[in-house]
UniProtKB/TrEMBL annotation:
Start-end of Basic residues biased regions: 182-199
Name used for this protein in its record: DNA helicase
Domain Chromo: 377-434, 470-506
Catalyses which reaction(s): ATP + H2O = ADP + phosphate + H(+)
UniProt source species: Eleutherodactylus coqui (Puerto Rican coqui)
Pfam families assigned to the protein according to its UniProt record, in alphabetical order: CHDNT, Chromo, Helicase_C, PHD, SNF2-rel_dom
Low complexity composition-biased segments: 170-180
Disordered, as annotated region: 96-199, 429-451
């Protein structure tokens, strides 16, 4: 019936008397019948095989004609025990395999942030408390019979299949026994052989956890009744063991708890609680060991509180389920990883944080449907997530086009120090206001005209990114990978060279294709090759000034220009006549080999004349450079703009910045050839035969000296020194280092060639032509009395070939004269009071008792000037003045305290109504601070330029003022 219900084929075998005498135990019967059943049913599962063998054995035992014999009785008992064991071992429905249950995620009871885990020594010394509830069951399993002597008989050796089956049966039966607390059982062997002390291992089995190692016991490994082995239960008060079916009455399942055999009960031997007490006392130790092994945090990582915590399976983090984002309705099943372990990695290293905002809350996890809910009932609402901060970051080694948003968790994990510093310096409750890098007013006007600008403003500009930082200035290098894909090294406007970035050829950037054309055309012009140039850039350039430059001179530089040359007119600019004369004079001097000093008065355009002169030499084929221009750092930006305006065909490189920027320039801007100079932050000489990439190199006085090794190894066609009074001392390092450079022609620019004495003029001439001007003492003696008319004429004749100087009065005869209007203003009452304090030398009234800046009255005239400007320039008046919560001076009191500010207030209101822009000069920076508070109070926009505003910031302020954006 059993085989038919399972759809298996039965084994037709007729047992003989010999079989009944031979197959006296279940083991022998199993070895005999198993191959027959497997032959008929090759794919029979092991569980069904064992069930069928048990049924066949019971049928065989019932039909045994010799069942009255002791051997038959023992065999029947063993068969019954085996059948019971199979029923316990096998699942209720053997035909349907049960799936393994999915465990729930790890949880623990956190003790809060103040809890510290005790050390091992502390746990040993702690008193052992008796637990209220027993959580484990001790299972005794017989593991003997594995090692056999070589001389043992074959009957003692079990087949591998049976042994495997029995072991698996024991373990599978042990799994449910620990949860129910049943009596301990083991697998025994028959008692026919010599009795030996078998090793029975006491194994601790936790719920859902397999058995581990334990200690030995001396229980017998066969049934006390039938003297057979099999699965037996152990007495807790003596070494005896029994089959369940051999007990009177017969037991269907192992009893729970501790159990004493019938012999012990008959003798009155009672089970003692000492063993249980020992076992229960062992429980805290095991629990402490588990706690010691559990390294998870004792508090929630979010709220820093204890309680029931959800533990991550990959790290030590713990969380409340309601502190997660979004919150979880219940403990999840299976392995669970915390948000930190599942946080996606960043695409690079964050260079700086530009902005932050509150992000969109994540979608909530829906609550589970109630079991008794109606089918048409609306679904339960989900637990809503909360908004978290997002940070707009600039990536290191990437341009501002790649700026993107990252989560707060990503920043905290991968850039902990940066995140903490940002938290400490910024308000983390309210996002900062938008910072329009190019000016809010300028952005609004451009946004209304250009839709593309509007998109960029939404993505980048309002987070403090200037439009210039995303505009290509030039491409300085390229690379070609194995796949034939080009990448370009881009120099961005208003950013230093060390912030140049590599961009893919397919990157969509404004004017990207145009700048790639310029790069390849200039490379072909310098290197004379186009083999590496992509086909789409060959002979496809639009700009006429990039076309091939004549290899030989096209005209005589001694011939004057009667009109403005075409290469100047093509720029859209117009030279004044005196500037055209200066150009002709410079060209003639260059042709004669005479080094010169252009000494025009300030404001007459020495920079423009110099640039047009250098450009004319290049365009007419007289020289291809390179030209070295040394100027003050504050004027470098102006030189760049003038070169871009008057000589667009020049490749101008600005050699300034820190060591990283200069190393980038030397590596990528000095030559198109590879390995012409050693790399690194230290400057090395350039190879003699290397082709220079640039036409003009702009640099400062200091770098002429610092990077002498690199710059001094280049042969310069012309040197231009702006503000040449730096050369008026021949003992200066700049003078001595520059004298060692290889220079073909020298041009000095200065507005004051003769400022103090003739010695300074001699040093300028000595730098120009040391062969002619090399005797300082003779020069000073010759022109000792410069007031004499003949000496003045002689000096003019001496300087004539070398110096050209014009004054504004000479060239701009129609220019209106400067009008100076002095307005006398009455002192305010506070100014009069402090004026008297100064005249009477009242130190107590002028100085505060708290210390700080004290008025010494050593220079009374300067103190009176300060008083006439504003009394708040004195410490006592500044301390007693009313202030706003921001620390600024209150506007009304600030204006009433100074007669000058009262007049300035009236003047500015009139000028503002007429649309004028105003320049205000002051000799005191503290007075500029007061003027800032005054202008803020009057709601005027302004720009401040003082000695602390240099370089690019100064030029940007000038541009904003001239552009009308203030």
């Amino acid at each position: 019936m059993l085989l038919a219900s399972w759809g298996l084929e039965d084994v037709d075998h007729v047992f003989t008397d010999n079989d009944y005498h031979t197959l006296t135990n279940y083991k022998a019967f199993s070895q005999f019948m198993r191959p027959l059943i497997a032959k008929k049913n090759p794919k029979i599962p092991m569980s069904k095989m064992m069930t069928i063998l048990g049924a066949k054995w019971r049928e065989f035992s019932a039909n045994n004609p010799f069942k009255s014999s002791p051997a038959a009785v023992a065999a029947a008992a063993a068969a019954a025990a085996a059948a019971v064991a199979e029923q316990v071992t096998l699942p209720a429905s053997a035909s349907v395999p049960q799936a393994m249950p999915i465990r729930r995620a790890k949880t623990k009871e956190g003790k809060g942030p103040g809890h510290k885990k005790p050390s091992k020594s502390t746990r040993v010394s702690e008193p052992k408390k008796k637990p209220g509830k027993k959580k484990m069951t001790l299972l005794k399993i017989k593991l003997g019979g594995v090692k056999r002597k070589a001389g043992s008989s074959s009957e003692e050796m079990e087949p591998p299949e049976v042994s495997d089956m029995e072991d698996s049966s024991v373990h599978s039966s042990s799994a449910p026994s620990d949860s129910s607390g049943r009596v301990k059982r083991k697998r025994g062997r028959p008692a026919g052989k010599k009795k030996k002390k078998g090793k029975v291992w006491r194994v601790v089995v936790e719920e859902g956890i397999s058995a581990g190692e334990g200690y030995e016991t001396d229980h017998q490994d066969y049934c006390e009744v039938c003297q057979q082995g099999g699965e037996i239960i152990l007495c807790d008060t003596c070494p005896r063991a029994y089959h369940l079916v051999c007990l009177e009455p017969e037991l269907e399942r192992a009893p729970q708890g501790n159990w004493s055999c019938p012999h012990c009960e008959k003798e009155g031997i009672q089970w003692e609680a000492k063993e249980l007490e020992d076992e229960e006392l062992e429980e805290p130790t095991r629990r402490d060991r588990r706690e010691e092994e559990d390294d998870h945090m004792e508090f929630c990582r979010v709220c820093k509180d204890g309680g029931e915590l959800l533990c991550c399976d990959a790290c030590v983090s713990s969380y409340h389920i309601h502190c997660l984002n979004p919150p979880l309705p219940d403990i999840p099943h299976g392995e669970w990883l915390c948000p930190r372990c599942t946080c996606p990695r960043l695409k690079g290293r964050v260079q700086k944080i530009l902005h932050w905002r509150w992000g969109v809350p994540p979608e909530g996890v829906p609550l589970p449907q109630l079991p008794d809910a109606a089918s048409d009932q609306e679904p339960t609402r989900s637990l809503q997530g909360r908004s978290e901060r997002e940070f707009f970051v600039k990536w290191s080694g990437m341009s501002y086009w790649h700026c993107s948003w990252i989560t707060e968790l990503q920043l905290e994990i991968f850039h902990t120090v940066m995140y903490r510093n940002f938290q400490r310096k910024n308000d983390m409750d309210e996002p900062p206001p938008f910072d329009y890098g190019s000016g809010e007013d300028e952005g609004k006007s451009e946004k209304s005209k250009n839709a593309e600008y509007s998109d960029l403003e939404e993505r980048f500009y309002r987070y403090g990114i200037k439009a210039e930082w995303m505009s290509i200035q030039r491409i300085i290098n390229h690379s070609l990978d194995k796949k034939g894909i080009y990448r370009y090294l881009v120099k961005w406007r208003d950013l230093s060279y060390d912030q140049s970035t590599w961009e893919e050829d397919s990157m969509k950037l404004p004017d990207y294709h145009y700048h790639k054309e310029l790069y390849w055309r200039h490379r072909e012009l310098i290197m004379g090759e186009s083999s590496s140039c992509p086909s789409k850039f060959k002979r496809n350039h639009k700009e006429s000034y990039i076309n091939d430059v004549p290899r030989s001179p096209t005209n005589d530089p001694t011939v004057k220009y009667e009109a403005q040359p075409p290469f100047v007119s093509s720029t859209g600019g117009t030279l004044h006549m005196y500037q055209l004369e200066g150009l002709n004079w410079l060209r003639f001097s260059w042709a004669q080999g005479t080094d010169t000093i252009l000494a025009d008065e300030m404001g007459l355009g020495k920079t423009i004349q110099t640039i047009v002169f250098l450009h004319s030499l290049y365009k007419e084929g007289h020289t291809r450079g390179p030209f070295l221009v040394s100027a003050p750092l504050s004027t470098i930006i102006n030189w760049e703009r003038e070169f871009q305006m008057w000589a667009p065909g020049f490749y101008v490189v600005t050699y300034t910045g820190d060591k990283d920027s200069r190393a980038m320039i030397r590596e990528n801007e000095f030559s198109y050839q590879d390995n012409v100079m050693k790399g690194g932050k230290k400057a090395f000489k350039m190879k003699a035969q290397a082709q220079v990439k640039f036409h003009v190199l702009l640099t400062s006085y200091e770098l002429i000296t610092i990077d002498q090794a690199a710059l001094g190894s280049i042969r310069w066609a012309c040197l231009v020194v702006d503000e040449a009074h730096r050369l008026k001392n021949n003992q200066s390092k700049f003078f001595r280092v520059l004298n060692g450079y290889q220079i073909d022609y020298k041009l000095l620019l200065t507005g004051t060639p003769l400022q103090n004495n003739l010695e300074e003029l001699f040093h300028l001439l000595n730098f120009l032509t040391p062969e002619r001007f090399n005797n300082l003492e003779g020069f000073l003696e010759e022109f000792a009395d410069i007031s004499k008319e003949d000496q003045i004429k002689k000096l003019h004749d001496l300087l004539g070939p070398h110096m050209l100087r014009r004054l504004k009065a000479d060239v701009f005869k129609n220019m209106p004269a400067k009008t100076e209007l002095i307005v006398r203003v009455e002192l305010s009452p506070m100014q009069k009071k402090y004026y008297k304090f100064i005249l009477t030398r009242n130190f107590e009234a002028l100085n505060s008792r708290g210390g700080g800046n004290q008025v010494s009255l050593l220079n009374i005239m300067m103190d009176l000037k300060k008083c006439c400007n504003h009394p708040y320039l004195f410490p006592v008046a500044a301390m007693e003045s009313p202030k706003l919560p921001t620390g600024a001076y209150e506007g009304g009191a600030l204006i009433k305290s100074s007669g000058k500010l009262l007049l300035l207030q009236k003047m500015l209101r009139k000028l503002h109504e007429q649309g004028h822009r105003v320049l205000i000069f002051s000799q005191m920076t503290k007075m500029l601070d007061l003027l800032e508070d005054f202008l803020d109070y009057e709601l005027y926009k302004y720009e401040r330029i003082d000695g602390g505003v240099t370089g690019a910031l100064r030029q940007e302020a000038i541009d904003r003022f001239n552009g009308g954006y203030i």
